[in-house]
Write a structure and sequence with these properties.
The chain has helices at about 5-25, 25-50, 70-80, 85-90, 100-110, 115-125, 130-135, 145-160, 165-180, 190-195, 200-205, 210-220, 220-225, 230-250, 255-270, 275-310, 325-335, 345-360, 360-385, 400-415, 425-435. It has one domain (about 5-435). Helices cover about 70% and strands about 0% of the residues.
Length: about 450
């Protein structure tokens, strides 16, 4: 078979771009290198996905169910970097982590294509080094970060390198790693910390991607046999109510975004912890849809903060008059977060609820009730940001062309039934069956 190493090329472009940006002194040139490196890397990732279904691949061979993920990851990384305000690259008080974000993009492309368990554990252990280095470069303390991640690193290394590890021990270590990485209660403090102290671009790209979902799918049989999936389900249930409630009472817009991501991540985990094939498929597809919608909300939050500074949710701001596109995009992404009819998450939410309720009525009620709480919080924030008093803003607050293009891409993805051909629920379900990732079967 002929090899077309497009995915490997995309990863290499990110690494080379990161190295070059470290050597360049001009901030304008660094901005140019960062955006174009991300763009060509995303093109390679999408090209690798297109040729995958024609029977061609590179030396990194993804399975059918995770083949679309590198393309989606590359696209979202590029969109977020593409619409990053110029002032974040040039003239900012703290350095923008251009090289770190390019390394993170290449790292995410590799993680999304990985199907080997030990390597996936190692990649998930290395993944948090990106925000940690960003914190160090900004002169922030990393004590909270290390308190959470030292046990998680030990768990990941033990599962990756230990031979003949008992299944119960492996299930316990995987549970610990997922709780810390996704920020399930009580392992969420470090995510709230990096959302406040890191570059917000780093936060958007790190918090929204939910990479441990792939780990749970690959190890669903072990988790089911050791009852670790049941324990994770209860952690996820507690986290959903806790984070959805916190999202409703936040004073800061950035904190609201963080707790919204944590609540929706917990909802995905609740679905993935099932051993039913349809429920597993619905949760996995929901994860991809929420990744897009949450990235869109993150872009809007960053755009508003770039214009007006840190925003309080205790007063009405009336931003609709100056930036109506941001209001429309916020509403569209909010609908995508709760699975409104017409959005790409609608079928996934419906399947998830329909599959959970007959077998576990309590968990089904949790899904429905948490959706209601998240919907209410999104509407409250929309009214606080874009309604109320009428204010005439200067033209400098208008949406820029780059932001306009990025937001329309996000809106199209939110309301699209699929990201690329074959990346829909049916193909995902078939791929899960072909690869034998059906826990309990």
């Amino acid at each position: 078979m002929n090899h077309f190493p497009l995915l490997e090329t995309g990863i290499g472009i990110c690494i080379i771009g990161a190295l070059v940006s470290l050597l360049v002194k001009s901030q304008e040139k660094i901005r140019f290198i960062t955006i174009y490196s991300s763009f060509f890397s995303a093109l390679c990732a999408m090209g690798s996905y297109l040729i995958f279904y024609q029977g061609h691949h590179g030396f990194i061979v993804p399975s059918e169910f995770n083949a679309p993920l590198p393309a989606l990851a590359g696209m979202l990384y590029f969109v977020v970097l593409f619409c990053t305000p110029r002032t974040k690259f040039i003239g900012a008080d703290k350095p923008f982590p251009s090289s770190l974000l390019l390394v993170a993009q290449g790292f995410t492309l590799l993680t999304c294509a990985m199907t080997d368990n030990p390597l996936l554990f190692l990649l998930l252990a290395l993944e948090p080094l990106i925000p940690m280095v960003d914190l160090v470069k900004r002169g922030e303390r990393i004590r909270i970060f290390l308190i959470h991640w030292v046990p998680a690193w030990l768990a990941a290394l033990a599962v990756a390198f230990a031979n003949h590890l008992p299944e119960k021990v492996a299930g316990l270590l995987i549970t610990l790693l997922v709780i810390v990485r996704l920020g399930l209660f009580p392992g969420h403090s470090w995510i709230v910390f990096i959302a406040r102290k890191c570059s917000f671009t780093t936060t958007i790209l790190f918090v929204t991607q939910m990479t441990p979902v792939l780990l749970l799918v690959l190890n669903s049989q072990v988790l089911h046999d050791t009852h670790a999936s049941l324990y994770l389900s209860w952690f996820a249930t507690l986290s959903i109510f806790y984070f959805a409630g916190l999202a409703m009472v936040q004073r800061s817009l950035r904190d609201f975004f963080t707790y919204l991501c944590l609540a929706l991540s917990s909802m995905v985990i609740l679905g993935v912890c099932s051993h039913e094939p349809l429920q597993l498929t619905a949760a996995y597809c929901l994860r991809n849809s929420l990744w897009i919608a949450l990235a869109g909300i993150g872009i809007i939050v960053r755009a508003l903060e770039a214009r007006h500074g840190e925003l309080s949710l205790f007063q009405n701001h009336g931003f609709y008059e100056s930036t109506p596109l941001l209001a429309i995009a916020f509403l569209a992404c909010g609908l995508g977060c709760v699975g409104f009819p017409g959005t790409s998450a609608f079928i996934s939410f419906e399947m998830l609820a329909d599959e959970i309720i007959p077998g576990s009525p309590f968990f089904g009620i949790v899904i429905v009730f948490s959706e209601a709480l998240i919907s209410i919080s999104l509407l409250m924030v929309y009214f606080k940001l874009f309604c109320g008093r009428k204010v005439e803003w200067s033209n400098i607050f208008k949406v820029r062309l780059r932001e306009m293009i990025a937001l329309w891409i996000i809106i199209l993805l939110v309301f699209g039934s699929r990201f690329l051909p074959h990346a829909n629920i049916t193909s995902t379900h078939d791929a899960l069956q072909k690869t034998g990732l059906k826990a309990g079967h």
